[in-house]
Amino acid sequence: MFDFDSLREIGSTMKKNKLRTFLTGFSVAWGIFMLIILLAAGNGLRNGIASTFESWSTNMVEIWTRHTTRPWQGLPVDRQIRFTREDVDMIKRDLPEVELISPVNSRSDTLTFRHEYLTGRVLSVYPDFASIQYRPIPPGQGRFINGLDLKERRKVAVLSPRMAEILFRDSIEPLGQHIKIGSLMFQVIGVYKDDNTNDTPPAYIPFTTGEMLFEGGYYIGDIYFTVRGVDTEAETEAFEKRLRARLARRHRFDPEDMSAIGMFNMGEEFRMWHGMNNGIAMFIWIIGIGTLMAGIVGVSNIMLITVRERTREFGIRKALGAKPASILKPVIIESVLVTAVFGYVGMVSGIGLTEMINFFMEMAGVGSSGGGNPGENMTLFRNPTVDMGIAVSATCVLIAAGVLAGYFPARKAIKISAIEAMREE
Asked: Virtual CA dihedral for 267, 268, 273, 278, nearest 10 degrees?
């Protein structure tokens, strides 16, 4: 029980050794403070990396054409490989791992509405592209390109929020309006969700429309698709090898010529980042717990000194008939008070600092999404805060450790006989 006499006794002991108590408590507060700061830094890094991948399917593959660097079957080097829609059909048909697929042609053009205009990218895509690169349409903001748009080669466009903001400044509802892309009129059918405020994300039109109006033919710049059942590094290598072999057979180039076809596999990148995240998290916990344990060891050592200083007092108490619990209790309570009070101070300080850093980062726009291709405009640090449950749990573990830090020195005190204790100088 926390009776008044015990608290007064503990207060008197701590008051006699103010500096020692403060330094002991400071080591505990510093340990929990550093643990929270390290965990917040790890979370900030993890959130930053996650935000880079959030608008991309983690099982996405992108391929594009380049030039050959090896002769093959009598054909010369430096040939330009060109994709066609037959390649899209072949990939979908011959590779059962492929789920969603979309060819992509990109162009830079001027978008105009009345007196407002901007220069931006326009991508010709299939409907699947909205799921491959996560282009959601919020309720009331229209729709993405569909199969009928492709079939009828409709002149329709889906804009980014930034484009809609620039073109329709006078609170005009974008949906249903006609804009110019180059010299041709397109109807706006949707505005997709995008948090990127640092750049102007592209507009989207049906692939068949872009192919007919802009590309002047038949060729494809890039092909995006998602895969299923390709989870390990070995499965990824096997899949990429089969894909290159089929494309090499169609376009007559050496399957081992890695320069003929460019390829980016998001799953491989995601696995690499995931493994790095796990390693960082483990490293942070090891360093943080080590710092925390150093504080606990300091508390235990101070309790040992306290017990040694009060050995004669404990001996007198035992000679007068004091029970072991009455000797054990004040030492443990003192240890718990030091760890609990200073641990709470360290926890509040750590959480306060991380929340303040996060607030100023949000005010400065540091945590905004980068957009663009993977690796471009990457936000490496975002929302560096710690979950309150983890912080409280760490503090509770710290208090439990404080009980042990006080128990063992106190247990040593009650094992000394009364006569030996009173002889202690």
From this structure: 90
Gap between the Cα atoms of 260 and 250, Å rounded: 13
- Cβ neighbours of residue 185 under 8 Å, at least 6 residues apart? 155, 178, 179
Query: Which residue pairs, CB below 8 angstroms and at least 24 apart, start in 41-44?
Result: 41/284, 41/384, 42/280, 42/281, 42/284, 43/383, 43/384, 43/385, 43/386, 44/381, 44/382, 44/383, 44/384, 44/385
* Amino acid letter, residue 373: N
Cα–Cα dist 213/188, whole Å: 17
Instruction: Dump pLDDT digits (tens) for 243-271.
Output: 999 999 999 999 999 999 999 988 777 77
Q: Which tens digits make up the pLDDT trace of 140-196?
A: 999 999 999 999 999 999 999 999 989 998 778 999 999 999 889 999 999 998 876
Q: How far apart are CA 198 and CA 376, in angstroms?
A: 12
Place of tokens 């249903």: 176
Burial category of 71 from C-beta neighbours within 10 Å (exposed 0-12, middle 13-18, buried 19 and up): middle
Reported pTM: 0.66
